[in-house]
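pls design
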C-alpha cells in the first residue's frame, strides 16, 4: 500500500507540474521533466548556464522510477519512503510553494470548491515508517473524500478559470475545513495499532536501565564535583535516548490547494 501511494503521488506530482508522462503502470513511471523540475531535481546549473549563453533550448532529462519491489530488476531508479530522491521531490514542492489553485476544464458550468491536502504521517520509534494520506474536503457540504489525488488523475485542469465557468463561494470556511481534517487525523491515529510505540517504550526502558547502572557505579566513589559533572552528563545522555528512542508521530502537509470541480465530478467523488 505504501509503495502504491508513492506511485500515485509521483504520477500526480509530475502531471500537475505539466511534465510528459511517457509510461505509467503499477510500480513504474517514466517522465520527461520540464526545465523547472530538471533544475530542481538534477542539480546541473552549469549545463543550463551554458545552454542559455549559446541561445539554445536545453534538453531536459527523462527519468524512470520503480516503486514496486517485484520490478526492481527493471531499469530505473528504486524509490521508497526514506529514499533521498523522494525527499528531494518533497523539498522541490516546498521550493515551488505548497499550495495551488486549479480549475477543472469542464465547459460552461459552476465549479465547486474543494480543499485538498496531501499529508505525510511519520511514525518514529525503533524503526521509522511513513505513509501518505490524500484528503479532499468539499467546501459546500463538508463531505470528506480520501485517496483524492488518485481520483484527480483523469481530470484536466487549468491554472485559470475556463471561459463561461464560474466558482461557487465556499460555505465551509478554510480554517474550519483545516480543523475538520485535523480532527479526522487525530481519530485516524487513535485507531492505529500501537505495538510499535509499546516496543519503543520497552526498548527505551532497557537502554535507560543500562545507563542508570553505568552512572550509579561511578557516582558511588566520585567526589562532589565529579558527581555534579556526572549528573550533567547523565541528563544529557537521557535526553539523547529520549530523542532517539521514544515513540513520536509527526504530521506534515506536503502540499495541497483549492481545486474547483464541476458538479458532475463532485457528485461522482461523493458517491451520489
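designed seq:
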Amino acid at each position: 500500500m505504501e509503495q502504491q501511494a508513492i506511485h500515485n503521488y509521483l504520477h500526480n506530482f509530475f502531471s500537475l507540474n505539466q511534465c510528459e508522462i511517457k509510461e505509467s503502470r503499477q510500480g513504474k513511471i517514466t517522465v520527461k521533466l520540464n526545465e523547472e523540475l530538471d533544475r530542481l531535481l538534477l542539480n546541473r546549473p552549469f549545463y543550463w548556464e551554458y545552454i542559455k549563453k549559446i541561445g539554445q533550448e536545453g534538453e531536459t532529462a527523462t527519468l524512470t522510477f520503480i516503486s514496486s519491489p517485484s520490478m526492481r530488476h527493471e531499469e530505473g531508479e528504486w524509490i521508497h519512503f526514506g529514499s533521498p530522491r523522494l525527499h528531494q521531490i518533497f523539498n522541490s514542492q516546498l521550493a515551488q510553494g505548497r499550495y495551488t489553485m486549479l480549475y477543472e476544464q469542464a465547459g460552461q458550468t459552476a465549479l465547486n470548491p474543494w480543499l485538498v491536502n496531501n499529508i505525510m504521517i511519520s511514525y518514529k520509534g525503533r524503526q521509522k515508517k511513513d505513509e501518505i494520506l490524500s484528503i479532499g474536503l468539499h467546501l459546500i457540504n463538508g463531505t470528506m473524500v480520501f485517496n483524492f489525488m488518485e481520483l484527480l488523475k483523469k481530470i484536466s485542469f487549468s491554472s485559470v478559470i475556463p471561459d463561461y465557468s464560474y466558482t461557487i463561494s465556499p460555505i465551509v470556511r478554510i480554517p474550519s475545513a483545516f480543523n475538520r481534517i485535523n480532527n479526522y487525523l487525530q481519530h485516524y491515529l487513535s485507531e492505529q495499532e500501537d505495538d510499535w510505540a509499546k516496543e519503543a517504550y520497552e526498548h527505551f526502558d532497557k537502554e535507560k536501565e543500562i545507563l542508570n547502572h553505568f552512572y550509579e557505579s561511578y557516582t558511588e566513589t566520585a567526589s562532589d564535583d565529579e558527581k555534579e559533572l556526572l549528573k550533567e552528563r547523565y541528563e544529557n545522555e537521557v535526553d539523547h535516548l529520549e530523542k532517539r528512542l521514544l515513540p513520536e508521530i509527526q504530521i506534515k502537509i506536503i502540499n495541497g490547494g483549492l481545486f474547483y470541480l464541476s458538479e458532475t465530478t463532485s457528485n461522482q467523488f461523493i458517491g451520489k
